[in-house]
Amino acid sequence: MIYLTQLIYIHEGKEDVFNEFESYAIPIIAHYNGQLALRVRPEPSAIIKTGSMEVPYEIHLVSFSTEADFNAFMADKERQKYLHLKEQSIRVSFLVKGEKL
């Protein structure tokens, strides 16, 4: 099992475009032995302290049974049809891979 944490930063004013991409991409996760465990949009009042990193627009916690399942999800033809929405809306994202301890 692999676990992924993604910090997502979007272009200002592109929230609707981002949400449209997510409406297509998130359901595809399950087709590849994956699960969206948590999708969080941090509120400013929830931030205790920031260091050198700005607060992301969203944080996703996702798991896949194997690395191959994750790679298959990334290569999914249906998902790829909507990558232009991702490119239009996401300024930068950070993906952290981990395992359960």
Give me the secondary-structure topology:
Elements: E1 2-10, H1 15-29, E2 34-40, E3 58-64, H2 67-75, H3 77-80, H4 83-89, E4 90-98
Antiparallel strand pairs: 1-3, 1-4, 2-3
Structure commentary:
The protein is of the alpha+beta class and 101 residues long. It has helices at residues 15-29, 67-75, 77-80, 83-89; strands at 2-10, 34-40, 58-64, 90-98. The chain has a 4-stranded antiparallel sheet. The model has no long low-confidence stretch (mean pLDDT 94).
Can you tag this structure with a few keywords?
4-stranded antiparallel sheet; Alpha-Beta Plaits; 101 residues; alpha+beta
In short:
With 101 residues, the chain is an alpha+beta fold. The chain has four helices and four strands. It has a four-stranded antiparallel β-sheet with strand order 2-3-1-4.
The CATH class name reads Alpha Beta
Poorly predicted sequence stretches spanning 5 or more consecutive residues:
none
> What is the strand arrangement across the widest sheet?
2-3-1-4
Q: Averaging pLDDT over every residue, what do you get?
A: 94
What is the percentage of strand-forming residues?
25-35%
Name the shape in a single word.
Answer: globular
- CATH topology call: Alpha-Beta Plaits
Distance between the termini: 11 Å
The total number of structural domains is 1
